[in-house]
Design a protein that fits this description.
The chain is an alpha+beta fold.
């Protein structure tokens, strides 16, 4: 039972860290402003009404409600899964990071109508869309779940 709460604690920690960073950015930089930190990295303050990396950002506003509904359904589902118990630590890490990222961005959509993005990477004329800690957790969770699936599959096919 403690394992279940540990995974939920991780998700809550991710969501709180994400919200803390967004609160700091919004309090430090006016909307649209930023500051160079390294030659390839800026901290910025922008609002993203779309999904990860501005997907559907200019869709007219309906996407906010779809993303809120989707995040709510996914968050409830993942919370139930984590409370029932996970099969292995890959699932625990993956589901927890996904839940934390989904909740972090959900809080923004509910409170601000859009997600605060603040990490801005660029190099040699190439510019990655700004993102945040919640987006990072979502992407990392997908990688961890995929890696866990591949490793589990390889282990199950290994001769005994």
């Amino acid at each position: 039972m403690m394992d279940r709460y540990r995974w939920l604690g991780l998700a809550i920690g991710v969501a709180l860290a994400d919200q803390g960073a967004k609160h700091w950015i919004a309090g430090t930089f006016p909307l649209g402003a930023g500051e160079t930190v390294l030659p390839f990295f800026n901290l910025v303050h922008i609002l993203n009404s779309g999904a990860a990396f501005s997907f559907l950002a200019n869709a007219g506003g309906w996407q906010r409600y779809v993303f809120i509904a989707l995040a709510l359904v996914v968050s409830v589902g993942l919370t139930v899964m984590l409370l029932k118990g996970v099969a292995n630590r890959w699932e625990g890490w993956g589901y927890s990071l996904f839940l934390g990222g989904a909740v972090g961005n959900l809080v923004d959509r509910l409170g601000r109508g859009a997600v605060v993005d603040y990490l801005d990477f660029h190099a040699g004329g190439w510019h990655w869309p700004a993102f945040n800690l919640a987006d990072t957790a979502l992407c990392l969770s997908a990688f961890i779940l995929l890696l866990g699936t591949l490793l589990s599959s390889a282990q199950s096919k290994a001769p005994t």
